[in-house]
Specification:
By secondary structure, the protein is mostly helical. The chain has helices at 44-61, 63-74, 82-91, 101-117, 122-140, 144-162, 168-182, 190-204, 206-213, 219-243, 250-276, 280-306, 318-346; strands at residues 15-24, 27-37, 245-246, 312-313. 40% of the residues are buried.
């Protein structure tokens, strides 16, 4: 493909080209073209180390399980077989192997709860959790997608922990404005739209789910379950608009997968750190530990895909989106009123 730009780029620079597609025989054209340089992301040494680790993990525990361990750790699912990729897409679990706001939120909650368990000061725990997610994003590489995932994930996780959305929507709006000023191309990015929606879900809907789930589950488990459930449910209308498909078992799949996400995320990060330190015997041990939850994820995706009506075609157009949006809003309002009724009947909030 050839294009012309008034901007000057160094040789070898990767760029993103955004424009309006126009079919013209015998060529394909873009009008209103804008060209943006892409950040280099990770250093060449780190990138090469990650590629070697990806091949090594696939040879030790299998391509599917190895890709899931590294994918949930830092977003490297390059060796994931096509069949498993399709099953994860139908089950609504593809977000697990990408660097998303949910990954950042999981890491934030993990570090925060670990420190508060040992009675560290709240402000210190928040600072350490934020630095942990910052280090995680730096290891992955500060690309635009990672930057917006980090901003949205930290903001959403902090809201879930506070149990209140006071000022959080203001911060979300400010974050969106800052990110769009920094990287204008995000305005036409589907990933950015999904990040904003999922962050809104973490701010508004996830605290409600945490309240409901904490009636029967420990608080830390309720928080880790509420994050993927709220995000996947609120993103459903946009996904219907993009794919013209409904995956009715997405929430169920994410609920089952939540028990595997936390250990795999920790193992994946430790595998990368030990690989960089050349502690190969520890890498082998961690890969063997991570194989079981990774295999469970494979079985979950395969089982969900094999269920009847796991992927339903819907008519293209706004009617399907409106119906899906109405169902999501109904579930949200029902959850809200259930929480209010329970708290009113008990006379006090169950959140701690």
């Amino acid at each position: 493909m050839t294009f012309f730009s008034s901007k000057r780029f160094e040789e070898g620079t990767f760029v993103k080209v955004i424009g309006v597609p126009e079919n013209s025989i015998p060529q394909f054209q873009l009008s209103s073209v804008k060209v943006y340089p892409l950040s280099k992301g990770s250093s060449s040494f780190l990138k090469e180390s990650q590629e070697r680790l990806s091949h090594y993990a696939s040879s030790r525990v299998g391509p599917a399980e190895g890709s899931l361990i590294l994918g949930l750790g830092y977003g490297d699912d390059s060796q994931l077989p096509a069949q498993n990729r399709r099953e994860f897409r139908v089950a609504g679990l593809t977000h697990l192997t990408a660097v998303s706001g949910a990954n950042i939120a999981f890491i934030f909650v993990l570090f925060y709860r670990f420190l508060t368990y040992f009675r560290f000061v709240r402000s210190y725990s928040i600072f350490v959790a934020s630095m942990a997610t910052f280090f995680y994003a730096a290891v992955v590489g500060w690309e635009d997608s990672v930057l917006r995932a980090w901003v949205m994930g930290v903001l959403g996780a902090y809201t879930v922990l506070r149990g209140s959305m006071k000022y959080s929507l203001h911060l979300l709006s400010l974050s969106v404005i800052v990110l769009l000023v920094y990287a204008p191309e995000l305005s036409v990015s589907v990933g950015f739209s999904l990040s904003v929606i999922s962050s809104s879900a973490l701010i508004v809907f996830a605290p409600i789910l945490v309240n409901i789930l904490s009636w029967h589950l420990p608080l830390w488990l309720s928080e880790l379950l509420a994050i993927p459930l709220a995000a996947s449910l609120w993103c459903a209308p946009l996904l219907v608009l993009l794919t013209q498909k409904i995956t009715p078992y997405t929430v169920l799949a994410n609920m089952f997968a939540s028990i595997c996400v936390l250990p795999l995320s920790v193992v994946g990060l430790l595998v990368l750190c030990c690989w960089l330190c050349r502690w190969f015997w520890v890498v082998d041990m961690l890969l063997q530990i991570g194989w079981f939850p990774a295999h469970v994820l494979v079985l979950i995706a395969r089982g969900i895909t094999s269920l009847p009506f796991s992927s339903l075609e819907v008519p293209s157009g706004m009617l399907s989106v409106i119906i899906t949006l109405g169902a999501v809003m109904l579930l949200t309002f029902i959850s809200f009123f259930v929480m209010l009724f329970k708290e009113k009947s008990s006379g006090t909030s169950v959140r701690k």
